Fold this protein.
Amino acid sequence: HFEKALSEAEIVFGSQDDELNSFVRGNLVEWGSEFSKLKKTCTELVTQVQRSEKTKLMSVLFEGSSGSGKTALAAQLALESKFPYIKIISPEKYLGHSETSKCVAITKVFDDAYKSPLSLVILDDIERLLEYVPINKRFSNAVLQTIMVCIKRAPPYENRRLMVFGTTSSPDVLSEMTLKDIFNVNIKIPLLTQSKHVLKVLSTVDEKVSTQDLESIASVCPRPIGIKQLLMLIEMAHVSDKQMTSKRFEECVQNYGLQSKNSF
Amino acid sequence: HFEKALSEAEIVFGSQDDELNSFVRGNLVEWGSEFSKLKKTCTELVTQVQRSEKTKLMSVLFEGSSGSGKTALAAQLALESKFPYIKIISPEKYLGHSETSKCVAITKVFDDAYKSPLSLVILDDIERLLEYVPINKRFSNAVLQTIMVCIKRAPPYENRRLMVFGTTSSPDVLSEMTLKDIFNVNIKIPLLTQSKHVLKVLSTVDEKVSTQDLESIASVCPRPIGIKQLLMLIEMAHVSDKQMTSKRFEECVQNYGLQSKNSF
Amino acid sequence: HFEKALSEAEIVFGSQDDELNSFVRGNLVEWGSEFSKLKKTCTELVTQVQRSEKTKLMSVLFEGSSGSGKTALAAQLALESKFPYIKIISPEKYLGHSETSKCVAITKVFDDAYKSPLSLVILDDIERLLEYVPINKRFSNAVLQTIMVCIKRAPPYENRRLMVFGTTSSPDVLSEMTLKDIFNVNIKIPLLTQSKHVLKVLSTVDEKVSTQDLESIASVCPRPIGIKQLLMLIEMAHVSDKQMTSKRFEECVQNYGLQSKNSF
Amino acid sequence: HFEKALSEAEIVFGSQDDELNSFVRGNLVEWGSEFSKLKKTCTELVTQVQRSEKTKLMSVLFEGSSGSGKTALAAQLALESKFPYIKIISPEKYLGHSETSKCVAITKVFDDAYKSPLSLVILDDIERLLEYVPINKRFSNAVLQTIMVCIKRAPPYENRRLMVFGTTSSPDVLSEMTLKDIFNVNIKIPLLTQSKHVLKVLSTVDEKVSTQDLESIASVCPRPIGIKQLLMLIEMAHVSDKQMTSKRFEECVQNYGLQSKNSF
Amino acid sequence: HFEKALSEAEIVFGSQDDELNSFVRGNLVEWGSEFSKLKKTCTELVTQVQRSEKTKLMSVLFEGSSGSGKTALAAQLALESKFPYIKIISPEKYLGHSETSKCVAITKVFDDAYKSPLSLVILDDIERLLEYVPINKRFSNAVLQTIMVCIKRAPPYENRRLMVFGTTSSPDVLSEMTLKDIFNVNIKIPLLTQSKHVLKVLSTVDEKVSTQDLESIASVCPRPIGIKQLLMLIEMAHVSDKQMTSKRFEECVQNYGLQSKNSF
Amino acid sequence: HFEKALSEAEIVFGSQDDELNSFVRGNLVEWGSEFSKLKKTCTELVTQVQRSEKTKLMSVLFEGSSGSGKTALAAQLALESKFPYIKIISPEKYLGHSETSKCVAITKVFDDAYKSPLSLVILDDIERLLEYVPINKRFSNAVLQTIMVCIKRAPPYENRRLMVFGTTSSPDVLSEMTLKDIFNVNIKIPLLTQSKHVLKVLSTVDEKVSTQDLESIASVCPRPIGIKQLLMLIEMAHVSDKQMTSKRFEECVQNYGLQSKNSF
Ligand SMILES: Nc1ncnc2c1ncn2[C@@H]1O[C@H](COP(=O)(O)OP(=O)(O)OP(=O)(O)O)[C@@H](O)[C@H]1O
Ligand SMILES: Nc1ncnc2c1ncn2[C@@H]1O[C@H](COP(=O)(O)OP(=O)(O)OP(=O)(O)O)[C@@H](O)[C@H]1O
Ligand SMILES: Nc1ncnc2c1ncn2[C@@H]1O[C@H](COP(=O)(O)OP(=O)(O)OP(=O)(O)O)[C@@H](O)[C@H]1O
Ligand SMILES: Nc1ncnc2c1ncn2[C@@H]1O[C@H](COP(=O)(O)OP(=O)(O)OP(=O)(O)O)[C@@H](O)[C@H]1O
Ligand SMILES: Nc1ncnc2c1ncn2[C@@H]1O[C@H](COP(=O)(O)OP(=O)(O)OP(=O)(O)O)[C@@H](O)[C@H]1O
Ligand SMILES: Nc1ncnc2c1ncn2[C@@H]1O[C@H](COP(=O)(O)OP(=O)(O)OP(=O)(O)O)[C@@H](O)[C@H]1O
Ligand SMILES: [Mg+2]
Ligand SMILES: [Mg+2]
Ligand SMILES: [Mg+2]
Ligand SMILES: [Mg+2]
Ligand SMILES: [Mg+2]
Ligand SMILES: [Mg+2]
């Protein structure tokens, strides 16, 4: 009955694309050349799976700090791939599932994927799927083993090709679990390190503020910063009806204890 | 039947506000400028959630020593917010619940919250909810994972906004669990460090004593001290029918072994 | 059926007072001024709960070496309080209970207490209730969490006041569990450190021996010593029909390996 | 059904005395003055329980190397006490019992003991009852807690007196478990350290060998040695029909790898 | 039902040979003399089991880095052996099986093997079968013990001979488990260490590219490299329709984060 | 049903002697004087149990490297003893049994033994019976405790005598478990350390090769070596139809990775 109770939240999305869109939330800003280049590289890999008959299995791990935009990028690439079978395995779907039923569900996603000629599975927030916690390094070994076997096994049918995306903000933990090495490809998602990156985001989000004001805000913004934290900070600085200023921006950083956030 | 037996205690409160009031117990004394400033900051955050459509999720962690007034402040802010859906998840409600049924209950509170346009959930005494104990660093990982997913997930419905308050007196433990970083905002609740803070509380509570007497009491009061311990000390010093004196006050500190309390 | 089998032993006592008396066993000897003073302090706390309407909850921890007389003192204070509801939660009552049924039972004692205007609960031998053992620091976290929540929660009803006594001979362990800090008051029960303390006990127990003999016995008695061990030693020294002598007393200490007892 | 299967072995003994005798096996040799003195001390304690009305509970721990004769002495004292209720709790009786059913059984022995005016319970080989193993210091905490509570609790009825004997060859482990301190009295059983001790045993067991031969055997016997190992060695040296010689005795020590035995 | 759900994937293969072929995928390239020599050695061992009546049991462990070609070699040898009973025990077959049902299944494979005069069992990816993870060195001891007993026990019937192949990329872990020593023979599978090894593979796979181009590609290929990683790299470098060049080859190594792969 | 499935393998042997013979496999070669002497010592112990009425229980532990011939020797001695009740408890019999059912089975073997006037129980490969693994020193404590009690308890009936043989290649582990000390006698089985030992085995097994050739083979054989590894090596060297030479012998050692085997 626990699982029944939870299913409510799952039926929210009308289509697969709706669900993916909810992870992207609007258009991705190309805030710098690193970001643009790696997005292109990923698109090439998707094309390889689509075209090369020899590539029966391709697994890609996106690693980056919390809030760097991993989930959004993976979801965006999935949307653009137009693969007939796309599935996102995310922790919130398995809230309260037992270890075993989680393994069953994950296995089922892969078994279903083998039935489609081209399929893409996203394993989002892998350390959360594993219920990993640094204290005593606890996690679900059953889920880990299931994932390890699933992303190593090529589709056992003819003419089937499978692409797997994984996201993690603890690549070292995954490495210690020997999970990271199983992925064929590793992509590192960077934080925003330069004020021009911040400016790019500011100018996309807030069109009413003058360029000069935006520049002074960008210059006081703590860096490196994740795109997620930056967007939240902009929302906070906006709230008091008045126009956003660099003073207000700095105040928010301080009052809300954001300097100590691990992504700053 | 255990859970049935326990439910007796739960039906005590007539309304949501009654329950919240039981955590505040009377008016909060504004004993110093730090306290007043942080209360204002919190009120602003509540306003942001209320107004900004982009802020679908805002989570705030109140950290401070035991007895510093975290629970009372969170409850007071909730009362003032007038949000249509307010729920407090506190350890005493889950006395004797199994790990699983605790997870179910917590998930249900959040699922219900998504149905209200504006909702506020208080996770009180998080380390107690996790059944954390420093010896061998034991705790319920299932509850931790449930909380981590719940406070990271924005409402999956349109036009729903969720505010989450958490309280803890062990922020370092939460940080080691990677739970602290998931909160968007951190607010630190201070202890009373100056004798004028103590005096403010004394003069509000005990109107019959002369200012001079109160000052001499305030000067002997061990510091820093939590508002909770100070109020208890005042009650003890009062008991012998006679007027409270600084000698009686000091005696209580000693006889009851209060110097060694960790909040002094 | 295990619990049924055990219940036999429980129905032994006719009334609540009979049970409490069985923990006191006769009158408490006031063997020194430290003991007399702390007994008075405790009585004052009982009076505070009885009279002050603000004090809804008062918890007191008695800590002291094994055999120092903690349980006897707590039971004696309870007897003298004349509170309408008095309950002693002691390890022998829960022999063979499962962790869960122990938690249920403890919770029930507190739930019942909330129904009485004035109630007193004794948690005797807390480390035994927790099934604590120093090897690998094992203990029942479920029982610990139940106790922590129960002694922190004020009665949720109007006009109810609750007093809690706890006894422990491992205060450092309780401190490491963050349980000790939850108690409002700490009382330390001392051992008998001076020969005049021993003499006071000897003269109360053994009226037939001459004062000079008692003095010579008191001078050879190993110190510090717990009241419990002293009373046992006196019984042993008595057994051979003849009058007790200091030689016989010393012999007992040696033959029975009592020097190495941790309370000496 | 496991327990049923095992019960066969239990119905072997006709009476309580038969069972006790099986642990003594013949008369105890008084092989030295230490042994004689401690046996007398123990007899006095039995008398105290028998006579002193105040001594409701007396617990004695026999500690000594493996094979030093602890079980035999405890059983012999029990036989001589003539108490109406005598019960031996030994590991072989609980072979294959679950932790819980072991706790039930132990509790029942004590509950039954309270019904007799004078009773004696032997807890034989306590570390084996606890299923203790030094690797990772594993043991049954449930059994430990049951034992700790049972030997601390005085009979809850009027006019009942209880004596408890425990035996152990790992007193340090019991001490680390805080179990050793709960016993009122500690008795240390020594090994045979002098050649005259060995001679005493040899001359009692083997009457046909000349005194001179026995002396030369005694002089080659490795020491210190437990009475149990000595008796086994004598049996081995005897086997070849011929008279036992010191050469044959030494050969046995070597061929059978007995030098390395921990009791030598 | 979990196991039922999974069985779908298992019925994929029409015959035993089909399944083995799926692990080989095409012909094995003899890329160097080390490889050719060890393949010959293995073939001799197969012949010994086939011919020598005394050799009732022969177990061979293939160890090598991830992607070195262990599974493919074991499967190829099995195909060539033409033994009447061949079975591959691989982790993907036991996805989601409980520990116990895995043990049952493994035992059954061996029990069935005893019924055939000549049989061959492959234990593929042993650390995965054991669900081994380096963090806290967790694994299924039940599966380990089952495997240890199965590969040590000769067929209990007359005229039965059994060959066992194991593959592992963590020989040190297996050694620490005392599992490695139970195998009669150890075969180490090397990585490709010289550019002529790479060239041999390139020229077999890609017949259209000129020898000179292949040589320049071989010279930029990171080494040592596993055959599996090399084949994947070639596929990636091919994807853009155009002819593969050494520049494109190097780009792939960098963009896809392949330098850090543990097999390079 | 798992246990049913497994029982198939057990019904293989027609008689007790058939089973024992399967562990001996042919005649034992007396390859050196150490071996001959210790076999004689063991035979004497068997005789002692047969004849001495006082020796109700005799336990002997055979320790030696893996492949040194422990199991074969124990089985051979059992065959020669002609005791009416002989039982071998070996790991392969308990494949897949639960911990509990293993304990039941072991206890039953001993209970049955008590019913025979003379009985002999072999506990083969004790660390495997305990499912011991060095990683984190895991093992079944339930099985260990059962074994410890069973081999310490003399038959509870009159006129019954019991002999116990244990074999182990990890005596240090058994010692750490305090299991080794419970055995009355320790016998160490040596490896073959001299070339004349190897020669003795070669000449017994291979009668067609000239003495000179055997000598040159013996001289290249790695030493010390277990009898089991030596016999396997001879089989391998034989396989190619041609006569065995020292060159072929050395090749086998190298190709099969046998130098690194722990028994060399
Ligand atoms: N390039 C981008 N341009 C604009 N918005 C972005 C971009 N990348 C991410 N976002 C926004 O930031 C939000 C948070 O990013 P996302 O959840 O993908 O980060 P993450 O790295 O997965 O974080 P976490 O480690 O917490 O899971 C997304 O909902 C999306 O709206
Ligand atoms: N600012 C304040 N003015 C007056 N009373 C206060 C104030 N803050 C807290 N209190 C009182 O102190 C009591 C205890 O404070 P509270 O329970 O909120 O502290 P806490 O930090 O949550 O403690 P804990 O760590 O033990 O949970 C409250 O019941 C309330 O009555
Ligand atoms: N002040 C006293 N005067 C006379 N007897 C006392 C006194 N205090 C304790 N006793 C006696 O000593 C006995 C043992 O004391 P008690 O059980 O209270 O000690 P404790 O500190 O609780 O020991 P433990 O740590 O073993 O639980 C009591 O039964 C009581 O009869
Ligand atoms: N004083 C004695 N005189 C003669 N025989 C003795 C004496 N003490 C013990 N024995 C004999 O030695 C045997 C073994 O001694 P016992 O079992 O009591 O030793 P233990 O210290 O309990 O050993 P363990 O530590 O192995 O339990 C007894 O069966 C008994 O026959
Ligand atoms: N000698 C070879 N020639 C050509 N292809 C090979 C050769 N060896 C292996 N391969 C190919 O490489 C692929 C992967 O190799 P394989 O799975 O056997 O490696 P592995 O060592 O078992 O890797 P893992 O450690 O990941 O299990 C095989 O599917 C096969 O097609
Ligand atoms: N003295 C011997 N002469 C001839 N063959 C022997 C001798 N000892 C052992 N063997 C042979 O060696 C084989 C293996 O020996 P055995 O299984 O007894 O060794 P082990 O020490 O028990 O090994 P493990 O530690 O692996 O259990 C036996 O099947 C037997 O045929
Ligand atoms: Mg994410
Ligand atoms: Mg609080
Ligand atoms: Mg007490
Ligand atoms: Mg004993
Ligand atoms: Mg493989
Ligand atoms: Mg063996």
Residues 33-51 of chain B form the longest helix (19 residues). The CA atoms of residues 63 and 149 of chain B lie 20 Å apart. Confidence is low (pLDDT under 50) at residues 1-11 of chain B.
